[in-house]
Amino acid sequence: MPTTTAQPPVRAGVYLRISRDPDDTRRGVTRQRKDCLEAGADLNWPVVEVFDENNVSATDGRVRSEYQRAQDWIRSQKINAIIFWEFDRYSRDPMEAEDLLRFARSHGLRAASTSGGEMDLLSPKGRADTIKAGADARKETEQMAKRIRSAFDQKALKGEPHGFVPFGYRRVRDIDDRGKVLSSHDELHEPQAVLIREAARRLLTGESLRSVTAWFKETGEPTPRGGPWSAVQVCQLLLRERNNVDAQGAAHTVRGHNNAKSPNGSRGSGC
User: Fold this and answer.
1) What is the spatial distance between Cα 117 and Cα 114, in angstroms, rounded to a whole number?
2) Is 113 in contact with 85 (CB distance < 8 Å)?
3) For residue 15, what pLDDT is reported?
4) Which of 10, 75, 180, 205 could in theory staple to 45 by disulfide, Cβ–Cβ 3.0 to 4.6 A?
5) Among candidates 28, 55, 23, 49, which has minimal Cα distance to 37?
């Protein structure tokens, strides 16, 4: 009578990744975690570890520490399955897709996404589909980067701003009768400009950067991204070239004061 080799018990890891979350709201990875844990329960794959990569790009060349840790857990056979929200959350690189297939052959790794269930990592068609998923994810990234660069170039040619509105300014859009944006420009936002001037005055009269930062927080005015102020952000704000003239010279004075040494040899502003 033929015998079959039973598969070992599944020990799954969940890999989470969001490319941009500068204010660390964690809404994206929280949603992914919930969906991945539900997928693990549906597959009857007990989850033994979560690899959480928030505000980390898969394509900017920097090391993804949690991705590397997941790889180490696979090599050491602490996990033998991986669950991710979608394949492009796990990887946007055909070479990393190849790594996934190699782990399937050498370590019996299994993989699943929340939308497609368990992936076929062993059959010729399944392997081809996995490589294609990695290639498609990379293509999407490159096309997106090309579209963004093109849009930025067009705005630059028109003299229009792009990206986040800097603190101290507000964006004004010219809109036609149909609601279409014809052009836009940034203009000084006086309530915030007042805060920049006052912060510069405090720093120049000897108040510490830590104290100025605490005062900024007390005003209740958030950063352009909606988070609380840090000393580094306050310093960058006061030294920003754009604020040198538009904030009536206050930031320009901070820049000069910062570059000048005091009699004891220290920098003037603490920035």
Assistant:
1) 6
2) yes
3) 97
4) 10
5) 49
Q: What is the pTM of this model?
A: 0.55
DSSP state of 2: -
- Per-residue pLDDT, averaged over 106-120, amounts to 96
Enumerate domains of the chain plus CATH numbers. Answer: 12-145 (3.40.50.1390), 189-259 (no CATH)
- Evaluated on CA atoms 69, 71, 73, 75, the torsion sign reads negative
Question: Mean of the pLDDT values across residues 108-117?
Answer: 95
Mean pLDDT of 145-157: 60
Structure-token match 């915030």, residue found: 192
pLDDT tier at 140, thresholds 50, 70, 90: confident
The three-state secondary structure class of 183 is strand
Q: What is the distance of C-alpha 83 from the center of its chain? A: 21
> Taking Cα atoms as reference points, which of 135, 136, 250, 266 lies closest to residue 204?
250
Distance CA 205, CA 38 (A): 57
Calculate mean pLDDT across residues 186-195. 88
> DSSP letters along 85-114, please?
SSHHHH-S-HHHHHHHHHHHHHH--EEEET
Q: Cα(52)–Cα(153) distance, rounded to whole angstroms?
A: 35
Q: pLDDT category, 106, cuts 50, 70, 90?
A: very high
Residues 6+ away with beta carbon under 8 Å from 250: 196, 197, 200, 201, 238, 243
Provide mean pLDDT across the span 114-129. 94
